[in-house]
Amino acid sequence: MASGIINYSLDSIRFYLTNAQKRKTIWLFVLTIISSFMEVVGLASLVPVMLVAAEPGGVQKSKYFGPVYHAIGFQEESHFLLFLIAVIFVFFLLKSLFSVWVNYIQARFTAEVGISIVKTQLGKYLNLPFWYFNDFGSSGLINSTLGVPTAYVSGILRALLAFFSEMIIVFVITIGILIYKPLLVLILTVVLLPAGMLTYRLLRSRSQKIGNRINELRPISFAIVGDLFNGFTELKLANKQKSFEQRLIANQNEVQSLDAEAYLFSLLPTKMIEMVAIIGVLTIFLYAIFFPSASTNLIALVGLFAAAAYRLMPSMNRILTALVQLKQFQYTIESLESYREAKYNESPHPQQLPLSFNKSIAFDNLCFSFPGEQKPTLRNVNIAIRKGEKIGFIGSSGSGKTTLMNILLRFYSEQQGAILIDGQPLTPQHLQAWHSIIGYVKQDTFLMEASIQDNITLGDSEVDIKRMHYAIEQASLQSFVTSLPEGLNTFIGERGSKLSGGQRQRIGIARALYKQTEILVLDEATSALDNETEREVNEAINKLSHTDMTILIIAHRITTLRECDRIYELSHGEVIAEHQYEDLIRKIV
Ligand SMILES: Nc1ncnc2c1ncn2[C@@H]1O[C@H](COP(=O)(O)OP(=O)(O)OP(=O)(O)O)[C@@H](O)[C@H]1O
Question: Where do the ABC transporter domain residues begin and end (predicted)?
Fold first, then answer.
C-alpha cells in the first residue's frame, strides 16, 4: 500500500547520490542491520532472565545459566541475578551507543545529500535562460533553493531512513519471535498490521494535501513580507500597510492551522499503536481463557508480548509517522524535479576561448524574438561601432533598446545574424572572456546591504586600492565619499536606501571601472529625473567620455548623449535613424 510513495521517493534520491554516496548507503544499510540485531539480542536476552527469575531455584535448573552459575562460583541465586542484570545493562548501554553512532552517520549522510541538493537547485536556477527568470518571484526562488531542499531532507530523506531502519528492526524481531514462539507473531500481525494500515489510510491523502497547500502558501507569505518591508514608504503613504498586513495574517492563519494539523497527525500513530498494544494483551488473556491448557504459559506470553511490544511499538509508530511524512512532503520531490528539462538548462558550458577586442563591435543583421511571441522584438539590426566610440540609443518605450543590450551582454541569444567582435562571431565559447571586459550599469543598479567598497568590488577580499581610487574619481564619487565620516566603509542600507538615485548609478559606474571594463553599457534611469541626479550622472558620463572605454548609452534624455559620436534611433525593433547630437538638439528646440 505504501510501496508507491517509497519507490517514488527512492527514485528521486537516486538522482542526487554520487557513486561514492551510493556505496555509502550500502554501508549504512549494513550498519543498520547490525544495530537491529543488537536490538533484538538485547530484547531476547530479557526473556530467559525473566523466566529463571520467576521460578525459585530456576537459575540452577536452567541448562544455560546453571553451568555459568557454578563456573563463576556464585553462592546465591539472587547475586547471580544481579550479575545478569548488570551484564544486560552493559549490553544495552553498548547497543545504545552503537545505535547513536549509526544515527550520527545517518544524520551526516543526510546533511551531505542535503548540500548536494542545494547545489543542484542553485545550479538549476542559475543556469536558467535569462528570460525564464521573469517567471519566478524572488520569494519563489528562495523557497525553491533553500526551503524545499531543507524540507526534502527532513520530510523525505530522514523519513525514508527511519522507515527502512525500523522495518529492519521489525523484520528481525519478527523472525526472532517466529523462531521462539510462532503464535505470538500471529497475534502481533493480526493486531498491529490492520491498525497500522488503517492509520496510514486515514492520514495519507490529507497529509499530502496539507504539504502541497503549505508549499503554495509559504512563498506568498514571503512575498507579502518582502513587499511590506521593501515598499515601506510607498505603502505607508498610500495607507496600504494595513491591507497588506491583513493579507499576510490571513495567509499565515492558514499556514499555522495546517502546521497544527500536520503536528496532530504526527501524534496520532502513537495513540493508535498504544491502543492496539492493550488490545494485544487482552487478546492473549482471551486466548488463555479459551485454551486453558495454555494458561501456564500465560505469564511468559504476556511478558514476551510486552517485551516485543516495548520495542515494536515505537518502531511501528516511526514507520507510520515516516509514511505520513513522505506523503506530506511529496511536493518537495515534485518541486525538485521541475525545470530539469533541457530547454531550461543552458549548460553544458563549452570549453572557453580567449577573445581579442582591438577594433570593433558589430551587430550584423541581428533578429530576435522572445519564446512564444509572434512579432520579432528586433529586426535586421546592423550597427558598426569602433573601439573607444561613445554610442547613444534612443527610441520610444518598448522599441527594443534593452533587449538589444541584453543580446550584446549575452543574456539572450539572437535567432539570426551575429555579434562580431573584431569581425569574429561572439560564441558561447567566448562568454567568460567577453563578460570579463563588458560592464553593465542598469537603471536600478544592483546594490548589496554592505559598504560602498564592497558594493564597488562586489565583495573582493583583497582590494586594489589604486584601481579603487581611479574608479571613484572617474565615477565622480570622490567628494561624496570624502564627505562621509566612514568613507568607503559606510554602509549604504538595504538596496542602497541611504543613497540618492544619482549616487546609486555612479556606484554602478565605479563598479564597472574597478572591474576594468573595456565596454560599458549604461541604461540611464528613467525614474530619477530630478536635475541634481541628472547633473551627477552626466558629470560621470562626461568624464568617462574622455577615456578609451567603448560606451553604449540607452538614454531617455537627449542631454545625456552630448558626448556621443552617434545616436541610433530604434522603433518597433528596427534602427530607423542615425543622428548626431547637435541635429537632435536642434530638432527638439
Ligand atoms: N522577457 C520578455 N518576454 C517577452 N517579451 C518581452 C520580455 N522582455 C521584454 N519584452 C518585450 O520586448 C519589447 C522590447 O522591450 P525592451 O525592454 O527591449 O524595450 P526598451 O526600448 O528598452 O523599453 P524602455 O525604454 O521602456 O526600457 C517590449 O514590447 C517588451 O514588452
Answer: 361-588
Q: Output the furthest CA–CA distance in the chain (Å, rounded).
A: 120
* Ligand 1 proximity of 374 Cβ (cutoff 6 Å): no
Instruction: Please tell me the distance from the alpha carbon of residue 218 to that of residue 368, in angstroms, as a whole number.
Output: 37
The alpha carbon torsion through 32, 35, 40, 42 (nearest 10 deg) reads -170
Question: Which ligand 1 atom is at minimum distance from the Cα of 570?
Answer: 21
Q: Is the CB of 410 under 6 A from ligand 1?
A: no
Nearest-Å Rg of the Cα atoms of the chain is: 36
SS3 of 424-486: the string is: EECCHHHHHHHHHHEEEECCCCCCCCCEHHHHHHCCCCCCCHHHHHHHHHHCCCHHHHHHCCC
Query: What digits encode the pLDDT tens for the residues 227-279?
Result: 888 778 778 877 888 889 999 999 999 999 999 998 888 888 878 777 877 87
Cα–Cα dist 120/122, whole Å: 5
Residue pair 441/528 in contact (Cβ under 8 Å)? The answer is no
**Which DSSP symbol is given to 127?**
T
Q: In the structure grid, which three cell numbers stand for residue 533, read together?
A: 541626479
Residue nearest to atom 12 of ligand 1 (CA): 377
Name the 3-class secondary structure at 579.
strand
Mutate which of 401, 554, 570 to test ligand 1's pocket (most atoms within 8 Å of Cβ)?
401
**What pLDDT, in 10s, does the model give residues 381-416?**
999 999 989 999 999 888 999 999 999 999 888 889
Q: Which atom of ligand 1 is nearest to the CA of 400?
A: 18
